[in-house]
Known about the structure:
mainly beta
Amino acid sequence: QVQLVESGGGLVQAGGSRRLSCAASGRTFSSYVMGWFRQAPGKERNLVAAFNWSGSTYYADSVKGRFTISRDNAKNTVYLQMNSLKPEDTAVYYCAARQTSWVRPDYWGQGTQVTVSS
């Protein structure tokens, strides 16, 4: 079992920045690949940033150049640095862990709301 707890959400003005954190506990952090999804009201949950097994990163086109995923293995924590935020970034952001596919992650966090005001 892996427990994921997100933090760092809140209200931010357009153009501002926010850093989300996801603390993992339970099974070995390095046994899973970590990523961030988001879900806006009435929309599907989509992958926005993630690590691959090789250590490389993936970013959705909508966040490329603005968001950065990083991790601290010593703290079992993954981060999502969000810069130049836009109102369309408003969503609940979920941390997830997977061993095989992002189509069906193995574990989810509870989510943290990010609201970007115009």
